[in-house]
Amino acid sequence: MLDRRQVLAMLGTTALATLAPTALLAAASIKPDDASALLVIDVQNCFLPGGSLAVKEGEQVVPVINKISKAFANVVMTQDWHTPGHISFASVHSGKKPFETVDLPYGKQVLWPDHCVQGTDGASLSRDLAIPHAELIIRKGFHKDVDSYSAFLEADGKTSTGLAGYLRGRKIKRVFVAGLATDFCVAWTALDARKAGFEVYVVEDACRGIDTQGSLAKAWADMAKAGVKRIQSADIAVSA
């Protein structure tokens, strides 16, 4: 992404309006309003250091999310909430290892280590999250035979979590997505939010990725193509 000073030097201020929206965002702080919501995706112990599916540097998103959450009147958090023996676990597929794939009725499924099993400490949200005003927790992936990365739809692409209806009922028009992991649950949430008609921002430094077989680059490319805006936490105006 071009640095703003480089843009000005090369093109001049009159040409700035022709740049992509993601470049323009750096020019001014974004002030979330009552029609904005922060979606905090799967900041759970299994995805943090020591967890069964730890995301590299995953713990670093917590203070960033805590900070930006203060700018939002509306915050929703999500939890992976799998049954024992969930279809997405490599342990239930004979001869398969984590990060290999299988074909399931709803499409290709990445196989994971057992993680975020209902009622376990690994499924709990990080104790370091400090968002007391969060209004809703969406639990997903609790159907044994279908995975659910997105906060909006399960992996079959048709079973709804109810989040879109909730947000519409609250008159939310734009959502900001943060959490774990960038290339899976964050990206799928952002893409489904766009399909549902919301304006969508992903806060890059409030996310971390797994990046298996090029998944991180693909996720960012897919999100850009769908019109998801890529921003940094510093772009969000947070009151002291």
Automatic annotation (TrEMBL):
- Metal-binding as a keyword of this entry, yes or no, is yes
A Gene Ontology biological process in which this protein takes part is: pyridine nucleotide biosynthetic process
Signal sequence: where? Answer: 1-26
Report the residue ranges that make up the Isochorismatase-like domain in this protein.
36-234
Which InterPro entries does this UniProt record tie to the protein? Isochorismatase-like_dom (IPR000868), Isochorismatase-like_sf (IPR036380), Isochorismatase_Nicotinamidase (IPR052347), TAT_signal (IPR006311)
Q: What is its EC number?
A: 3.5.1.19
Q: What class of enzyme is it?
A: hydrolase
List the keywords (alphabetical).
Hydrolase, Metal-binding, Pyridine nucleotide biosynthesis, Signal
Molecular function terms, GO-annotated: metal ion binding; nicotinamidase activity
The pathway that the record names for this protein is: Cofactor biosynthesis; nicotinate biosynthesis; nicotinate from nicotinamide: step 1/1
Q: Which domain of life is it from?
A: Bacteria
Q: Which PANTHER family match?
A: LD05707P, PYRAZINAMIDASE/NICOTINAMIDASE
* NCBIfam families hit by this protein: PRK11609.1
Q: Which family does it belong to?
A: Belongs to the isochorismatase family.
Name the UniProt record assigns to this protein: Nicotinamidase
Q: Please give the organism.
A: Bradyrhizobium shewense
The taxonomic lineage of its organism, from the top, reads: Bacteria, Pseudomonadati, Pseudomonadota, Alphaproteobacteria, Hyphomicrobiales
